[in-house]
Amino acid sequence: MRIGELAEKVGTSTRALRYYESQGLLGARRAANGYRDYDELDLRVAREIRSLLDIGFALEETRPFVACLRAGNAAGDACPDAVAVYRRKIEEIDDCVERLHAVRSHLEGQLERAKEHKEKTCPRLRRNT
Amino acid sequence: MRIGELAEKVGTSTRALRYYESQGLLGARRAANGYRDYDELDLRVAREIRSLLDIGFALEETRPFVACLRAGNAAGDACPDAVAVYRRKIEEIDDCVERLHAVRSHLEGQLERAKEHKEKTCPRLRRNT
DNA sequence: CCTGGCGTTGACATCGGCGTCAAGGTCTAG
DNA sequence: CTAGACCTTGACGCCGATGTCAACGCCAGG
């Protein structure tokens, strides 16, 4: 299968696939004419990469999953390295959510404060509240 | 006050301050020698910008707060425009948290699935569990 | 006068994941 | 033979908020 077909099947662009290759994630046998020739394993690798990227993984983080597939496993997350990335990611998410919660609380507080402010500095504006 | 002093007081770099100016956020009177000359209001504006950026606001989003301060208000969030940005930001945070939660759940699911996987494909590894 | 520490503008570098254009090679159908 | 639909590599553009360097001006102290 050539790159255009792979791109369509995976739901991405040929540019993206070539980029993954440049990063050493997607191997490529070459046909006699120099065209890239992908097989079913490559298809699964590409799909794994895409789904992880879509979820919010960095390209680098997909590497263990790719290696795992290439090692002959049925799933990209069948290896401890990959599972470790899952765990790291969950921690990152927890941290992120925590920070967002903190910011959210802060903003809610500011909203309250701003409201009081307005009531104090412009009491005449409280016509219909 | 000159730019170095302002940068130190605000806790940022002179480069950043010049950048804010290039974006039309931080005005600058000039001394006779061409040096930027900042006053107390500028200090407050710069601090407002920094604290918002630190929280996760984009520079563009600080504009209403700056305008509000420049308009003579005691606080940058004393104006409806600024408050509107607060609200938008809170919504963004909620959306973000929601997506993160979804991804987190998905990852937890994958972890479970991966665990079963291992138990199925390598039952002999369950020596001391 | 000279050094060193401030200031000035301008412009290129960074990070990630591509988009997009350029200039060409390859293959197939008509 | 030729159009056109694919492929190739290479390289620059983008986004945001700076870092960093260059090359220069200004000014106070020894």
UniProtKB/TrEMBL annotation, chains A, B:
* Signal peptide extent: none
Q: Which UniProt keywords apply?
A: DNA-binding, Transcription, Transcription regulation
Q: Where is the composition biased (Basic and acidic residues)?
A: 110-122
Domain (HTH merR-type) spans: 1-68
Is Cell wall biogenesis/degradation one of the keywords? no
Positions of the region Disordered? 110-129
Query: Does the UniProt entry include the keyword Chaperone?
Result: no
Domain of life, source organism: Bacteria
CDD domains to which the protein is assigned, alphabetical: HTH_MerR-like_sg3
The entry's protein name is: MerR family transcriptional regulator
What are the leading ranks of the lineage? Bacteria, Bacillati, Actinomycetota, Actinomycetes, Pseudonocardiales
